[in-house]
């Protein structure tokens, strides 16, 4: 196994790098987009609420692979050429953002409505009250489920392998099919994923303890 | 510190589990597949499901169809008699050798070229088909031959040797490896790459179904297809070789070639007929 690792070191590391990059990008953007749609789902305006609901329900209920394939195969045909890595990262971002929206919305809902009323009573606008009073409390509730989403996101990034996104899984498939050493290759790939996901799990646990 | 201990425990237990799993499969290679199959009168073949003309699962009735399927049936009958059955399991370029190794299939007849690297892991029968690697491009493409692909993007399939071959002829080409041929073709249509490379006979099947795409240039390698058999299955191997030569000798082989490749544009079936 050590030999397999050293002789394919550059492939494993480049795959690891692309997986990490894709995960970081998707994590950042899905957190922003997800939070925005979560707020849309709780605003007083009914029209905006419906838009938020439709977005979440559509992308939460379509398989990630389908969304990614759509960006990889259909969008280039009609709109703009995008490569496998970009298509995969976009798919990952949209898919995860729908889950994050649901998580954050649950967090917002679990904040006592009295908080919002009191803030509004102080003369704050809806957005001010959301930004300074409700969201900081909501995020505290949602840290454990958000941690789950982040770990899922890293694991789901293996979807890049199906659109030639050069990620860890893609390199793993290529190495396994060249060396025929399937068992060891996928064990190594699994360990590389753990290197990303375990620190996230532990950091989230740490954050949870600190804030609780 | 405690966290790192957890980490170490998880990694070690994973390694242990996989090492143990590796030990368990020893007994499989000591079984005699030829004798096992003789009792059940069934041979389980690993075949392609996405390759027109060779091995394709018809979506209408779920049946496998193609040259390799018919050849596998003919060989099975020669091996164990008229009432013997060929059972088919669909494989991909990537999964075929692992599935053979873990005993899910008895033999692979799935567009697999005999290569020295593969011979280290599995055994091959005599060649049953002589293909050659080529490229498929869109009509009007500036790419005339494989060397034109330097600095261009070329699409291949994970686990096929064509992705490794193409680097010898166009070292600067960017290679994208997709999971199967259907997806590789769709990616070519979406403009994700400039050409699709694999064996000419597979590409010919794609060109039949997709007007606007054509086989470009001459084949630049020779790819003798062989039936893959697990190491140590010498009885099975010699039985398959014997059956294959009988199928060739009694004219069944040429009949099947005519049936599947008789009128495929861009593919000269006369070159692959056998005496």
Task: Offer a few descriptive terms.
heterodimer; A: mainly alpha; 9 helices; 0% strand; B: 275 residues; alpha/beta; D-Maltodextrin-Binding Protein, domain 2; 5-stranded mixed β-sheet; globular
Summarize the model shown.
The complex is a heterodimer of chains A (212) and B (275). With 212 residues, chain A is mostly helical. Chain A has helices at residues 2-7, 9-40, 46-60, 64-78, 84-110, 113-121, 126-156, 168-179, 182-211.
Q: Could you tell me the CATH topology label of the largest domain in chain B.
A: D-Maltodextrin-Binding Protein, domain 2
CATH topology of chain A: MetI-like fold
Helix content of chain B: 40-55%
| Largest sheet properties of chain B | 5 strands, mixed
Strand content of chain A: under 5%
Rg over alpha carbons of chain B? 21 Å
User: Helix segment count of chain A?
Assistant: 9
Work out the strand percent of chain B: 15-25%
Tell how many strands the DSSP assignment of chain B holds.
13
The largest inter-chain interface, given as chain pair and residues per side, is: A-B, 28 and 32 residues
In CATH, the homologous superfamily of chain A goes by the name MetI-like
Mean pLDDT rating of chain A: 91
Mean pLDDT of chain B: 87
* Terminal Cα span of chain A: 43 Å
Pfam families (chain A): BPD_transp_1 (PF00528)
Protein name (chain A): Amino acid ABC transporter permease
Organism (chain A): Companilactobacillus huachuanensis
Subcellular location (chain A): Cell membrane
Structural account:
The complex is a heterodimer of chains A (212) and B (275). With 212 residues, chain A is mainly alpha-helical. Chain A has one domain: MetI-like fold (Orthogonal Bundle), CATH 1.10.3720.10. Helices cover 83% and strands 0% of the residues of chain A. With 275 residues, chain B is α/β, with parallel strands linked by helices. Chain B folds into two domains: 31-131 and 223-269, D-Maltodextrin-Binding Protein, domain 2; 133-216, D-Maltodextrin-Binding Protein, domain 2 (3-Layer(aba) Sandwich), CATH 3.40.190.10. Chain B is built from eleven helices and 13 strands. In chain B, helix 4 packs across helix 10 and helix 4 (67-80) runs antiparallel to helix 11. The A-B interface holds A 72-74, 76-77, 81, 83-84, 161-164, 170, 173-174, 176-178, 180, 182-184, 187, 190-191, 194, 198, 202 and B 3, 7, 10-11, 14-15, 18, 21-22, 93-94, 97-98, 117-118, 120-121, 155, 158-159, 164, 176-179, 183, 186-187, 189-192.
């Amino acid at each position: 196994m050590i030999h397999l690792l050293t002789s394919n070191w550059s492939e494993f590391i480049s795959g690891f790098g692309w997986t990490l990059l894709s995960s970081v990008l998707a994590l950042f953007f899905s957190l922003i987009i997800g939070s925005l749609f979560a707020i849309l789902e709780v605003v007083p305006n009914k029209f905006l609420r419906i838009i938020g609901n439709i977005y979440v329900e559509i992308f939460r209920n379509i398989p990630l692979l389908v969304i990614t394939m759509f960006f990889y195969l259909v969008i280039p045909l009609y709109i703009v050429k995008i490569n496998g890595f970009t298509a995969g990262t976009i798919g990952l971002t949209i898919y995860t953002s729908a889950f994050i929206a649901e998580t954050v919305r649950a967090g917002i809902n679990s904040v006592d409505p009295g908080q919002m009323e009191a803030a509004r009573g102080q003369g704050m606008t809806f957005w001010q009250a959301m930004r300074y009073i409700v969201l900081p409390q909501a995020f505290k509730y949602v840290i454990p489920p958000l941690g789950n989403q982040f770990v899922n996101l890293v694991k789901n990034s293996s979807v890049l392998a199906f659109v030639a996104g050069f990620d860890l899984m893609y390199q793993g498939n290529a190495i396994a099919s060249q060396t025929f050493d399937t068992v060891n290759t996928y064990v190594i790939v699994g360990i590389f994923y753990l290197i990303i996901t375990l620190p996230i799990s532990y950091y989230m646990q740490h954050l949870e303890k600190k804030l609780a | 510190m405690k966290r790192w201990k957890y980490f170490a425990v998880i990694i070690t237990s994973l390694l242990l589990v996989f090492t143990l799993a590796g030990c368990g499969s020893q007994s499989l290679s000591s079984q005699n597949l030829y004798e096992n199959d003789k009792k059940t009168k069934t041979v389980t073949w690993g075949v392609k499901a996405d390759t027109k003309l060779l091995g394709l699962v018809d979506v209408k009735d779920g049946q496998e169809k193609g040259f390799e399927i018919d050849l596998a049936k003919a060989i099975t009958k020669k091996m164990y008699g008229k009432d013997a059955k060929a059972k088919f399991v669909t494989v991909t370029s990537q999964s075929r050798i692992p599935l053979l190794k873990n005993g899910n299939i008895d033999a692979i007849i799935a567009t697999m070229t005999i290569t020295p690297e593969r011979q280290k892991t599995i055994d091959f029968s005599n060649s049953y088909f002589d293909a050659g690697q080529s490229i498929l491009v869109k009509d009007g493409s500036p790419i005339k031959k494989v060397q034109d692909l330097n600095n261009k993007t070329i699409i291949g399939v994970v686990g096929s040797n064509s992705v490794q071959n193409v680097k010898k002829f166009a070292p600067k080409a960017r290679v994208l490896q997709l999971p199967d041929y259907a997806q590789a073709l769709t990616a070519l249509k979406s403009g994700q790459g400039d050409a699709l490379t694999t064996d000419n006979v597979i590409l010919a099947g794609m060109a039949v179904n997709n007007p606007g795409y054509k086989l470009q240039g001459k084949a630049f390698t020779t790819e003798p297809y062989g039936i893959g058999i697990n190491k140590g299955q010498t009885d099975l191997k010699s039985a398959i070789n014997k059956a294959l030569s009988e199928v060739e000798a009694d004219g069944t082989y040429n009949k099947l070639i005519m049936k599947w490749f008789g009128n495929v544009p861009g593919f000269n079936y006369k070159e692959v007929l056998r005496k």
